[in-house]
Amino acid sequence: MRVLNRLEETLIAFLIAAATMLIFVAVIHRYGTGVSANFARWAAAEGYNGLAAVSNSVFRWFLAWDLSWAQELCIFMFVWMAKFGAAYGVRTGIHVGVDVAVNQLSTPSKHYVVLFGLLCGAFFTCIVGAFGARFVWHMFEIGQTSSDLEAPMWIVYLAVPVGSFLMCFRFLQVALAFARTGELPHTSEGHVEGLEKVAPGVPAAAAPPAAAHAKGGAQ
Questions:
Q1: Cα–Cα separations (whole angstroms), residue 121 to 63, 67, 117, 124
Q2: How much is the pTM?
Q3: Residue 114 has what DSSP assignment?
């Protein structure tokens, strides 16, 4: 499980970082091309021939970049990131849920209702994964490619069955743990890793190093 968890987290982090960097480069290319062209025209109109020549060189340098595929690749990376991120959300308990009515139930009834909900999530994602796998096989047979990257579309749509089956596995994993312990994964929005809470009345000297460091930083 540690290997799968780390692979899941690494893939999500890599896709987010790569897509962000690619978007940044694409924006620099778009605005750099327009600004250099406008500046070259202004310099030529004002008689600054040397400055116009430099601006034209910068414009041609930007124009040589072929980033027509950047938007399509970013969309594909965000699709993969979203599918694996959904599975990560099930594992860590960061998905938003409406549990007002569930919390009003007694302990035995609440236990069965929560377990039923988790199994429904596993069943639904398994169906999505099965239909996704069938669709991917169809895309593989027809050999369709994307418009800009000309990448095989079956590789792009492979995110649907892979992510859905992984999400199904995470639902079953959480359901099994809940059936054994009665605990669900929960993420605190205010929690910061490395900073531990100090019990009331405990002096700072007796606090853990991380908490003492945080207190000193606040002072």
A1: 49, 40, 6, 5
A2: 0.74
A3: H
